Queue: 2 jobs
Job 1
Amino acid sequence: MQGLAHQLIAGIATGGIYASVALALVMIYQSTHHLNFAQGEMATFSTYIALTLIQAGLPYWVAFLATLVISFGIGVFIERIMLRPMQNASVLANVGVFIGLLLVFRNAMGWIFDYTIKAFPTPFDTGTPLFGGLVSGHELGSTAVTLVVLGLVYVFFRFTKLGLGMRAAAFNASSSRLVGIRVGWMLALGWGLAAAIGAIAGIMIAPVVFLEPNMMLGILLYAFAGALLGGIDNPGGAVLGGFLVGIIENLGGAYLVGTELKLTLALGIIICVLLVRPTGLFGRVVQSRV
Amino acid sequence: MMQRRTLLAASAAMLAAPRIGAAVTVGVTATELKIGNFMPYSGPASAYGVIGRGDAAYFKMINDQGGVGGRQINFITYDDGYSPPRAVEQTRRLVEQDRVALLFHTLGTPSNSAIVRYVNQRRVPHLFLATGADKWGNYQDTPWTIGWQPSYRTEAQIYAKWMLEQKPNAKVALLYQNDDFGKDYVTGVKDVLGARFDQMVTTASYEVTDPTIDSQVVSLRGTGADVLVTAATPKFAAQTIRKVHDIGWQPMHFLSNVSISIAAVMRPAGPERGVGIITSAYQKDITDPVWNDDRHMQAWREFMRKYLPEADMSDSGYATAYNVSFTLMQVLRQCEGDFSRENIMRQVANIHDLEVPLLLPGIKVSTSPTNFHPIRQMQLQKWSGAHWERFGDVIQGADV
Amino acid sequence: MDAGRDRIGTGIALPAAGAAERSAARPLRLLGLLGLVAVAAVLPPLFASSYQLFQLTLALIFAIAILGLNIVTGFNGQISLGHGAFYAVGAYATAIMMSHFDLPWWETLPVSALICAAFGFGIGFPALRLGGLYLALTTFSLAVAVPQILKYKGVEDWTGGVQGVFISKPDAPEGLGLDADQFLYLVVLAFAVAIFLLAHNLLHSRIGRAMRAIRDHSIAAEAMGMDIARIKTRTFALSAGITGLAGALSAIAIEFVAPDSFSVELSITLFVGLVVGGVGSIVGPLFGGVFAVFVPNLAESISRAAPGVIYGVILIFFLYLLPQGFAGFPQRIRALLRRRPEG
C-alpha cells in the first residue's frame, strides 16, 4: 500500500512535466489550430539559450525572463518567415514544415551544444526533500510555476481583448478579419506565446531529466497524450490530462504492463481518447460546417 | 528459436572449419595497408566520434614513424550514425569498394550486431570492437570477430564476486537498460549467484525513451534491498544517483563503468550525492594527477599535443583509442609482413600478457584461440565526492 | 496557368487523370517504359560493383516503400508519419518466417505483404475518425513506439528481442550466372516495376479517382454516394501492404532485423522521400528512394558534424520552392518553355 502511494506521488511529480508541455501544445492549437511536432525541440533549444545565459553570469530569473523574450521572438520569427507562406497550403505541407523544423532544431542542437547531458540549475530549494524524498522542492516549485502559467493563460484568453482576438482568429479567420482583427499578427502572437510557454516547460523539466538535445522526444508523446486526454482546446484540461498521464504511466508501469511498454501506454491513451472521446475529458464538441 | 540456433551453429561450424588453399590477402600493397572503421560521427551517439579521431591520429603517428612492415596505414572511417542498416551499408562500402584488409574498432553493439554475420561469412577480420557486449568473445560461432574491453558481463561478475565477500546475505536490486548492454549485467550477476539469483535479486528495466527512472528506483527501494547495481547509460545513471540520494536510500551502490565520466555523470548528478558509489576501471584515468609522472601518460600527452592539439585532453575516448590502436599495432607487428587475413586472425589470437600503455598496472591483454576476451580484469574504485579512488586488488572475472 | 492540375484543398499540386494522358502517345510511352526497364535490368549488373548494386537495391526498396506511403498520403490525403511501422512489420514477418519456419524467401513476401495489409486495415479503422492532423499525430506516436514494441519480452522468442534476427540472402538459381547481389537487384527491380505499374493502373481506375475525390472534396464525395469508410480503410491497407513488402525486401537485402533499425528516423526518412520525390506522383517515389539512400552519404561529405540539419533544410526548401518534388521538374521546365514565346 505504501508502494502504491509512493508510485502515485512519483507519478504526480512526472505528470507535472507532461502538464507543462501539454500546456504549450494547447497554446499553439488554440491560436493556430495546428499541432507543432517541433514543439519539443524548440523548447529544448530555448533551454539551451537559458543555460548559456546563466553560464554567462546572468542571475537565474533575469536569464529566465530573457529566455522567454528570445523564445517569443523565435516563435514569431518562425511564424512570419516559415509558416506565413504556408497559410493556405494543405495540412500535409504544414506537417512537412514541422518535421523539417524538428530535424533542423534537433541536429543543430547536437552540433552546437553536443550530446552530453548538462545539469541545469533550479531556483527552488532542493535541500529538504518532501514526502520522504519522493518529491523534490524543484518538482513542487515547477508544478506551482505550471499552475501560475495556466492561470495567466486562462486570464489572457478569457478577459483580455487580445486573447479573445486570438481565439477568434483561430476559430474563424475570415469573420475575424471582418470585425477588424489582424489575423496574421494573431497567429504570430500565438506562436510566440507557445514558444515562450515551451521555454518555461523546458527550463522546469531540464533540472529533473538533465538537458540534452533529445530531452523532449519521449516527453512530447506523453504531453500529446495528456493534452488530448484533457481536451486539446482546454488549457486547464490539458494540465490535468498531463498529471493524469503521469499517474497512469507510473502505476501502469509498476503494476500493469511493466516498465517495458510505458511509451506504448501513451500511444494507447492517444488512440483510446481519439476513438472514444475525441474532444477529451473537458473539451467542447465543435461541429464543423461545410 | 531452436531452429535458428541450430542453423547458426551449423553455419558457424562451416566457418570454423579449417580452410584449405592459399591464404587470402586483401587491402595490402607493397606500400599500403588499408584499415576500415565506422563511428557515429553524427546523431545522439556522436560524442563517441572522438574515438575515431583518436584512432586516425594514432595511425598518423605510426606512419610518421615509418609505418608497419614497410607499409603506410590508410585508415578509412565513415559515419554510421549509430544506425544498424547504415552500418551494413558502410561495411559493404569498406569491404567491397575500398577493399580494406580488416575492420577495426567499429563502435556500437547494435551496429556491430548487424554486420557480424556478413564479416564472418566474408572472412574479414573484425577486430577490437568498441563495445563491451559479451558476445564478441564467442570464438566458436564468430571466429573473425573479437572485442577488446572487459565485457559488461565480466564487469558484473566482478561486482557480484566482491559483493558476496562483503555481504553474503545481500538483498540485491538491479536496474538495467532494456537492451544488450543492460542484459549483459543481469547475465553476469547470474553467473556468480547461480541458483540463488531468483531469491536474492529483484530487477527493474527502463527504456531509453523514458523521461525519468524515478518510478523504477522507488519500486526497487520498496523491496528493501541493501545493494543496488545500476547498469545505465550516463543520463539515466545521473538520474539514478540523484533519486537514490534524494529518497534517502543508502544501498551499497555499484555503477556501470560506462557511466563514470565526471563531466557527463557525476557532476550533473551532484558530486556529493554519489559519495561511496563503487565502480570499476581498467584504464588509467587521464585526469588523475597520480599519473603525472607515469612514463606512458607523458608519452600520451606528447602524442595528443602533436597530433590532436585542438582536442579535449580530459576526454577518455582518446585514451581508449590510444590503447586499442596500440594493441592492433602489436598484432600487425607480429604478422611479420604476412598480412593475409588468416595470419592476422592467427596473431590476434596469439597475444600474451601484453602491457598496454594506459591500462592500469597489473591489467594485461591476453588472447588465445579459445579466449577472445582480451581484457578480463578490473580494479574496483570508489567515488570520494571529487574523484574516483581505486582500492583492493585487480579482480578477475568469473570462469563460466 | 497550370492547366490540368488540381490545387484545390492541397496546396501541393497534383497531376490529375486528365484527358491529355489518354492521348495517342500511349503505345510510344509503353515502349519507352519497356526500354527503360530493360536498361535498368541490364546495365547496373554489368557495370556496377556489388556495393553499388546493393545501394541501388536499397534505393529501389525505399522507392517501393515511399510509393506505399504516397498512395495513402499523396492520393488519399491521409497523412501518415508512421509508415516505418509497416516497413518494420514486413521486415520482421519475413525474417521470422525465414528463420523460424525455414520458408523460402519468395514465399514469405506475399505473406508479409498480406500481414501488413491486415495491420494497415486495423489502423485504418481508427484513422477514419481522425482528421488530418490527428492521424499524423497518432502515426507519429506509433513510429516513436515501434522499437519498444519490437523489443517486448512477450514476443522475444520470435523477434529475438534486442539481438534481432539474422537471415540469409538467397543465392541466384543455378545456370543464370549471377551472383547473389545481382540476383537480388533483379528481383527487387521486377517487384518495383510490377508494383509501380499496378499503382499506376489502380490510380487511373475508378477506385483511384474515388480516392482522390475523397482527398479533395470528401463531403462532396460522400454526398455522391461514395462509401468513404470503405475506400479509406482499403487504401490504408493497400498502402501498408506495399510498404510492408518493401520492408520484407529490405530484411532480405540487409540480412538482419533489429529494433534499432526501425526508429522514428526511418518514418521520417520515408516522409522526406515522399515530399522530395513528389507528393501524389507515380514516379516521384523513385526519386525519393534515390534521395533516401544517396543523400545521407552526400550530406556526410558536406558536413560530418550535422548531416541532419542539411536534411531538414532540404525538406523545407522543397516544400517552398518545389512543392511537386523532383517529379515536378519536367512540368516546371515545360511550363517555362511554353511561357517564353508568349512573353
Job 2
Amino acid sequence: MAAINSYILKPWLVVVIGISFIISLFLLDLSLGSVKISVEELLNIISGNPSKKAWEYIFFSFRLPKAITAILTGAGISVAGLQMQTLFKNPLAGPSVLGISHGASLGVAVFVLSSTAIFGVTTNFQEALGSWGLVLFAIAGSFLVLLSVLFASARISDGVTVLIVGLMFGFMTGAVVSILQYFSDPELIQNFLVWTFGSLSGVAWSQLRVMGPVIALTLLLSLLYSKQMNALLLGENYATGVGINVARTRLKLILTTSVVAGTITAFTGPIAFIGVAVPHLARLLFRTSNHKILIPGTMMCGAAIMLICDIDSQVPGTQTTLPLNSVTALFGAPVILAIIIKNKKMKGAF
Amino acid sequence: MESIATINQEAAHLTRPILYTQGLTIGYKTKRNTLELEKDLNIKIRNGELVCLIGPNGCGKSTLMRTIAGLQKPLHGETFIAEVDVNNIKPHQYAKLLRLVLTDRVNVGAMTVMDIVSIGRYPYTNYFAKLKSSDYEIIERSLDSVHLTSYKDRFFSELSDGEKQRVLIAKALAQDTPLILLDEPTAHLDLPNRVEIMNILKRLAKQTNKAIFLSTHELDLALQTADTIWLMNRKEALKSGTPEDLVLSGMFERVFKSSAFTFDKFSGSFKVVHPTKGKVSLSGNDVHSTWARRALEREGYQVVQDADWPISILHEEDRWKLEMNGKTFQCQDIGELLSTIREAN
C-alpha cells in the first residue's frame, strides 16, 4: 500500500476500492451460513422473486440485520479504539483494554441481573436486550469506567500505567458482575454468559432501529474530530497552543466513545480486540496518522474486518457458529502481540 | 510621503514592545511555603528582537518561560502580549499571539512534515481544518525558511533531531504569531545544527519582524546572535541588556563563576581553570603561538611574554625552539613540544 503514500492512488480511488471490497464481503456474509444462498438467489430475493419462501425469511429476518450489524459494529468499535489511542497517546488503548467494554457489561449485568437479585422480578433477557433501558445502562457503565480511567490518567503521565489502571477497573467491574451473578437466577446467568460470548445474530430489526441511528450518528460526529485529534497527537501543550480547547475535546471524545462502545456492547455483547487492532491496520494500510484520512479509513477497515470475522465464525460445511468474541480475539490478539514485539518501532507506527 | 509614513509606522511598531511584564514574580507556591525565583520583573521584548534567556541550571529559566507563556500562574504581577493579559486570554486568541516550542520530544508516528506544519494553520482554519491557497503559501514559505521544502512528504518520525526541531520551528512560523517562544531549541543537537538553528532564528527575527525569545545553554552562540540577553541567576535579580554590556559589566563572570573555569572577557568565552605548574615564556603573537598557548595552558602552565623563566619557547622557521633547564630542544609540532616538556620534567 506504499502506492497511496506516493500518490499513485487517488484518495477517491481508495474509497471506491474500499467500499467495493466491503460490498463484496457484505454479499459473501449474506450468502454464507447454515444455508448457502447463492448471489444469484440473493438478487432474486431482493427483487422479490425468491425460489424458496424460507430463504426469503432467512435473508430478511437474520442475514440482512446481522450483516448490517457487522458493518456498524466493526466501524463503531474501531473508531472508538482510534479515539482512545489518540486521547491516551497509547497504541495499546482500546475499548476492551481500557475496561470500557467491561463497564458496559457491568451496566448490562446491573440492568438484567439486579432485577432478580434486588427486586425479585425475573426479566426476560431476550426482551431486555436492545431495550432503551439496557442501552442506557450500558452507556452509563462504559462512561463511568472511561471517566475513572481518565481521572486516574490525569495524574499519571506514563501510558503503560494508564493501561494497567484500565485493566484494574476492568477487574473491579468484573468482580461486581460476578457478585451479581452469584445472587441471580441460573437461567439468567446462562443467558448473560451467552451474551458475553458476543453475537451479531441477536440483533433483530427492532433493535437495529435503536442501534443503527445511534452508531451512525456518533460515527458522523467522530468524523468532525479529525482536527482536534491531529492536534492532540502532538501533545496537550501543542494542542492548546494552536487554539484547541483540550478539556472540551477530551470530554467530547470520551462521550462519543462511551456511547459507541456502550451501545454496541449492549446489543452484541463485548467484542474483544477489534478496537485495538483495527486502527493499527488502518495506519499500516493508509500509511498515515493524519486523522482526516485515518478516521474514515479505520471505519472502512473495521467494517471489513467485522464482516470477515462474522464469515469466519460460520464453520464451513457445518451448522455451528463460533462465539464472535473468540473469533475477534483470535484475529486481534496476534495483531496486538505483533505490535508489542515490534515495541521499538511502536512509537513510529503510532 | 508614503515612504515616510511607512517608516514612521514601522518605527512605532518597533518601539512598542510586543511583550512586557509588570511586577512579575515567578515561582512556586505550596501550602507550606512559597519559593520565589524572580521578583518584581519589568521586562520587555520588542518586535524583530531576538532575546536569549541564559543562566545556570535550576535558576528558573523554564519557569519564567512557562509563566510568560501563560502555562503557569505567576505569584504576582502580569504579562502582557500585544496589550492582552496572558492569563486572561481566549484559546483562539492565544493561538494567534504566541507560539511556544517546547523541548519535549514529539512522537507522532506516521505524520508527514506537511501534516505537522499544517497543524500550525489550525487557528486560522475552519472546523474541518481545510487549508486555503493562502494557507499553503504560508506553509511553503515557512518550510523554505528552515530549508525543508524538499522534506514535505517525509515522515516526521524518520527525521534527525535537528530536522525535527526545524520542522517544529516551521510549524511555529506557519502559525504566524508575532511572538515565538522556544524552550531550549538547541538541546539534543550537535554543533552545526545548533549554529544553524540560531542563525535561522536570528534571520527570521530580522526578516519577519517577529519577536523571538528562547532559553539556551549555548553561551557562545547566545553572545554572538542575541540582540538582548536576559541573564538569570539564583542569587541576583534577572539582568537584561545587550550581550556586550553584560560582559563588560562583569555580570557574565559573576553568574557563571566557578572554581573549574573562568569567563574570559577578551575572547568572550569560557576557559577551564587548570592547576598551575609554573610559568612558561612564549614569544610571538601569530596563530602558532596562540594555539601553543592553549596547549600549554591545558598542560597547566601559565604563559607569559617576558623571558625570565626556566622554560622558554620560540617559534621560528616552522619549528619550535624550547629552552629548558639550560638545554635547547628542537620540536616539529606542538605534540612533540608537550612530550619533550613532560619528559624533561
